[in-house]
Design a protein that fits this description.
The protein is α+β, with helices and mostly antiparallel strands and 64 residues long. Helices cover 45% and strands 31% of the residues. A two-stranded antiparallel sheet has the order 1-2.
Length: 64
């Protein structure tokens, strides 16, 4: 793969990671005390024109 492609993909993935973390942190703050709770999380990545749908699932532990 070309350097331009790799740079473009890394920039996109960094944006996804940073903005997703910010959104989750805000939602956790707004939810109040979530200690002892576990939240199921799911991300669906689609790329138009490449017939790609990639699903990532996981868990996020709550906080006080």
């Amino acid at each position: 793969m070309s350097d331009d492609f790799n740079m473009s993909m890394r920039k996109f993935l960094k944006q996804v990671g940073v903005t997703s973390q910010q959104a989750i942190e805000e939602a956790m703050r707004n939810a109040g005390d979530t200690s002892g709770k576990t939240f199921k999380a799911k991300v669906v990545l689609t790329v138009n024109g490449l017939d790609l749908e990639h699903v990532v699932t996981g868990k996020i532990e709550g906080q006080a």
